[in-house]
Give the backbone structure.
Amino acid sequence: MSRIAYVNGQYALHGEASVHIEDRGYQFADGVYEVINIDGGRFVDEEAHLDRLDRSLDELRIAWPMSRRAMKLVMRQVVHRNMIKDGLIYIQITRGVAPRDHGFPHGIPPSIVMTAKTFKSLPAEQPDDVGVAAITHPDIRWSRPDIKSVALLPNILCKQKAREAGAYEALLVDSAGYVTEGSSTNVWIVTKNNEVVTRAANENAILNGITRQAFIKLMAADGLSFVERKFTIAEALEAKECFITASSTRIKSVVSIDGKPVGNGHPGETVARLRRLYWTAAEAGGVLPKVPTNIREKR
Ligand code: PMP
């Protein structure tokens, strides 16, 4: 079956779908995106993703290309036309097409593209889980990584460094020596006192992952002790466990950093427990509020 993409009001064959050469996303990375997990045909934490999309658009002063209601209808069409049960939908909105000029163009509609693909998450029970390796890398991104912008060049360079080192993720470290997040994930540790720690999302230093927010909620409901604070790579190496989260991969144990083992060098119990909790939640469409929490777009 051919894959179908949605591009500016039309459904097109994935291989033929295209945008204009002067789309500002293409020329300036002047746009934002979201990736939402689809579990059993349902979007996981859909409203939270659309809230974050709204925030990213607002921060960059890009208008919604359509109403939130229409967006949700198109998302469902894209999933339906691609016959996706378990997978990912990618939504990208750019400032639109205009003659190349750094300043904002006037009176042009934003461009929107949606694609979807089948992506089966590993089962919740993973007895043979061996975790992943990570490297460290200076956080070389701009100072607004809280905006989910398509400008991902530093993230790409860091991820590639990780791949070339045979690792899965690059843990980004700020100029003060603290971990911000991964190149495409949020980073957490479990201390020897069984406290789960991740960096706070209040300083614009990280993307406030929707999966991150979901895990925080799940941990609270499960009685796990959790704190938002900065931590260093030395602390991560001293920790019992280290893990990363994102909508696509959900949760993965990081068992080594720059070739040194984390804890006993094997995935730990906390990740196994969190994985079970998250998989159950995802099947039910997520755990975050099911209604928009900020409605800038009121149409
Ligand atoms: N941080 C960065 C830099 C990311 O790219 C991502 C995933 N796109 C995340 C964190 C995780 O975000 P989410 O849980 O919303 O997928």
